[in-house]
Predict the 3D structure of the following.
Amino acid sequence: MLKAAPLIDLFFPNEPWEKRAALIAGCGYGFVETWQGKNPADLQKMSTNGVQLVSIVMNFASEADVAPVRAENLPAFLDRIDRMADNALSAGCKQGIVTTGQQVGGRGYQTQRAALAEAMAKAGERVKNREFTLNLEPLNTEVDHAGYFLSDPADAVAVCKETGCSNVKVLFDVYHMAIMRGNLTEFLRNNIRWIGHFHTAAVPGRHEPLNGETNYPFLLSEIEKLGYDGYIGLEYIPLLESRESLLQTKRYFGV
């Protein structure tokens, strides 16, 4: 059975981390993920009360000073990966999401892509002995992330292959990739072994998955048939009250 992991940042927002964890567990979920990562004490509070933290964010697309598409950022990027991996591992979490950063004006695509591939290769080697996985995230540039460097999942897979690191994979966000390319099932059938994590949300709107155009029960069934045994992140902005939203999504996903 697939393992769903709500993004703890978006549910029960008025409660402290440890109470959110308990409330999410009360909805029948055993896992959470977070946008946080810089404070290990906060991460440890999320991985408690019946849930396990399974993914953090290593860097944000807006953080130009550590963006791996900038070759001059390599030392700072690797330092960030080191620190965030240790923070995650202190809470029992073994994977993190890496964003590329925004496109750099005046630099060609291939120049930035080469910097990205080198940074991901060195980062993957750096955390390999800690059994930590880095999931590179392509985002949509049509609705939410204009100017972001990586929007093609096929190119994301190609970068991961070039690193030569088995612990460098792709975060396949169904919401973003449905916007950018569609044909999701065929892409996943051809590339599932390069996928380290999934995110889900409705298109359009990024709200409860039940209310969008994507047939999630079909898609999740296909993902399971392909042998994927990782996590399905619930990275959507709930319109319903948190408990009702999570229960509705649990029923809809069949998890």
